[in-house]
Amino acid sequence: MLKIAVLISGGGSNLQSIIDSIKKDSLDCSIEIVIADRPNIYGLERAAQNNIKAEVVDRKQYGRELSEKIYSLVRDKVDLIVLAGFLSILNGDILKAFKNRIINIHPSLIPSFCGKGMYGIKVHESAIEYGVKFSGCTVHFVDDGTDTGAIICQKMVPVYADDTAETLQNRVLVEEHKALPEVIKLFSEGKIKKIGRKVIIE
Ligand code: GRF
């Protein structure tokens, strides 16, 4: 059974989609630990409601040691690290030890509207501002950049003329909640093959 760690920074709706997929038996994996980079977020409540071990590694307390502390909590304990609404940037040994075993979900069609400072509602505000006709979400491998890893899965949504950032965000979230469990399932089945920047789903 695939063992995963889920890293969060907020409400945890993507964490919830993984929990729900496991409960529905459509995802054969075990969430060994939830790690939050800040306290008092609803995602921690979701972990508690489902008796999932959770740790707070406060970015304000750990600063540059954040990644090392998280690495100490997951090394030799999980097969895959899932960033689910996680806002801190991982670096150092954890990236080497978990090469091609860390995935992230971003609420746009990368390479649009991503990178440093582009997170949460800002992503959707930028898409609306730019006037794109489609947006969506991307699940990608995490490398040493910000939202630059090889793309595994993308799901697209239309953008309507009367959309607000919030209405677009809600439409994209529906697809996020499908995409992340789908990718974790494919990973658990060994069906994701990465060749350079290309990712082939077998
Ligand atoms: C989501 O849009 C996710 O794509 C982004 O953070 C937002 C909040 O995620 N990375 P969640 O509800 O905390 O899972």
UniProtKB/TrEMBL annotation:
NCBIfam families: PurN. Keywords: Purine biosynthesis, Transferase. Its EC number is 2.1.2.2. It comes from the Bacteria. Pathway: Purine metabolism; IMP biosynthesis via de novo pathway; N(2)-formyl-N(1)-(5-phospho-D-ribosyl)glycinamide from N(1)-(5-phospho-D-ribosyl)glycinamide (10-formyl THF route): step 1/1. Pfam families: Formyl_trans_N (PF00551). It comes from Clostridium omnivorum. The record marks 147 as: Raises pKa of active site His. Catalyzes the transfer of a formyl group from 10-formyltetrahydrofolate to 5-phospho-ribosyl-glycinamide (GAR), producing 5-phospho-ribosyl-N-formylglycinamide (FGAR) and tetrahydrofolate. Residues 3-184 form the Formyl transferase N-terminal domain. (6R)-10-formyltetrahydrofolate binds at residues 64, 104. Belongs to the GART family. The keyword Transferase applies. It catalyses: N(1)-(5-phospho-beta-D-ribosyl)glycinamide + (6R)-10-formyltetrahydrofolate = N(2)-formyl-N(1)-(5-phospho-beta-D-ribosyl)glycinamide + (6S)-5,6,7,8-tetrahydrofolate + H(+). This is Phosphoribosylglycinamide formyltransferase. N(1)-(5-phospho-beta-D-ribosyl)glycinamide binds at residues 12-14. The active site is at 106 (proton donor).
